[in-house]
Amino acid sequence: MSTFEALASLSVGSNLGNRLANLRTALRHLRNTAELEVVQTSDVFETAPWGVTDQPYFLNACILVKCALPPEELLTLLKGIEAKMGRRVERRWGQRVIDIDILTMDSLVCDTPNLHIPHKDMHRRGFVLVPLAQILPCWVHPVTGRRVDEMAPLFRDPEPVRVCRL
Predict the structure, then answer these.
(1) Per-residue pLDDT tens over the stretch 39-91
(2) Does residue 1 lie in a domain region?
(3) Model pLDDT, residue 12
(4) Which of 113, 123, 146, 149 is buried most deeply by CB count within 10 Å?
């Protein structure tokens, strides 16, 4: 029997309720998951909404975890945490109590109807790249061939504002 193990990076975001408490609750859920070990967290950044702009600003951060779950099982786990925290999907890119996305899993490339690793839009989003550069600066995108710390200064979003540590 083979055991799956990967270093995965996750993006967490919230723009409803107590946004910082929501991020910290998500982190606590991740820490209490036997198949995950939280390795590092980024700072928390406040950012303008992306995609749908008529909503409150977000707090965003990234979390690096050692993961003993295959990608689809990790996705199921993360969606379960979102549901426990009261996430309701009403419209794409809309308001949310919590959003947890898989950004990377080592150099894995996964493209299924339900899951894209690396996250398909990560290289276009400052709210992902800036915190990710704090915890995984030398990671090389397996499709673009660019390092995170090279991509972070190129984003087109307004500058994320550092708020605090996660």
Answers:
(1) 999 999 998 887 778 889 999 999 999 999 999 999 999 999 999 999 876 66
(2) no
(3) 97
(4) 123
Q: What's the distance, Cα to Cα, between the start and end of the chain in Å? A: 36
Percent of the chain at pLDDT exceeding 70: 92
The dihedral through the CA atoms of 165, 66, 112, 136 has a sign that is positive
- Angle (CA) 143-145-146 rounded to 5° is 120
Residue 75 inside a domain? The answer is yes
Residue 73 resides in a domain? yes
For the chain, the domain total comes to 1
Alpha-carbon span 55 to 28, nearest angstrom: 26
Question: What is the C-alpha separation between 7 and 48, in angstroms, rounded?
Answer: 29
What pLDDT sits at residue 40? 97
Does residue 153 sit in helix, strand or coil? Answer: helix
CATH of residue 23's domain is 3.30.70.560
Q: Whole-angstrom Cα distance, residue 149 to residue 132?
A: 9
Q: Nearest-CA neighbor of 38 among 49, 26, 29, 30?
A: 30
Q: In a 10 Å sphere around its CB, with 0-12 CB exposed, 13-18 middle and 19+ buried, how is residue 147 labelled?
A: middle
pLDDT in the model for residue 50 = 76
